[in-house]
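Notes to self, Plasmid recombination enzyme:
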Amino acid sequence: MAKKEQKSQFMHLELYSRTGAIIQSSKARKTSTVGVINEAIRTNGFTSHIMADGYSPAPPTYLYSQNNLSLDDHYKEILAQVENEKDSLGRKIKSDKNILLAGVVSYPKPRLANNWDSDDKQNYIMFKDQSIEFMKNKWGDNLLCVLEHTDEEYPHLHFYVVNKNRIASTPEMHPGFAENIRLEKEAKAENRPVIKKEQVSAYKIAMRKFQDDFFNTVSIYCGFDRLGPKVQRLTRTEWKIRKQVTRQLAKAIRKTRKKNEDLNIQTDELNQLMLELEQETANVLEMQIQVEMEQKQVAGGLKDIAMAQYFREHHKDLVVQYNIEQQRKKYESSSNLKLKN
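result:
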């Protein structure tokens, strides 16, 4: 059964442990890191949800990966590092400790419906580029890789983050849990109990800001809403008007951005021309200096010739005496050479 077409952004974060944490108010466990990774790389036995929706599993496309490693190779490095880490009491890190932050961001228009025009295709490319830029700015070197899935109704990206300095501190990479951890540390430093209500509030505020940041960096450029109509409590008519305004805004932003990119290209070309002109000017100046030096050498030579001519015409006796002296030196030099031999 086909899902309803989304129109608002979808960005979700989740932390995972090696054994899968126990779900509150239940004996069941969350998916483990191994399960999440096998599902992402489409390992046999981990794709039943895809086939249940009538689609055929296909390998992911790597849009970004540190050192060009596969996701399972990244995971091997995570396991090797966490095995050597200790907790505050010097014990091994427990297997139910969260060591991997995984996220998914979905493009809110079905791709398999085969109804994408050229604008949709360009929009999707921008969505991917902007999303990866957002992830890199948010997590830097702690972002391991980004995978693209197009074998389900909505194309989407999966990404994976760890704290590379200390794998066991990966929960600090999650904006909401980072706030909870901060409050726990403050309470411990002040020797008082943690106020759960404060943690819940801080978590919500942090995640709201995270979603706002994603909207301002990615969704607004693609014409997606921050929230859906039910959350905003809009009527269908109000929602349609809102969507039209959002699309027009996104189009205007993209147009402005394109103009800025064109302007930057023109500026770069102008800067290149200026550099070439400066180099050409420097070459001309160098040639001018070389010509002036050669002219001075020629002038010096002409001056010597003129002086020799003057002596030949007005001081013949000195010229003769000079020639005799030169011949004598030449003879003595030749005689000394013969004596040595």
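- Strands lie at 10-17, 61-65, 98-106, 143-149, 156-161.
- The domain at 10-171 is CATH 3.30.930 (BirA Bifunctional Protein; domain 2).
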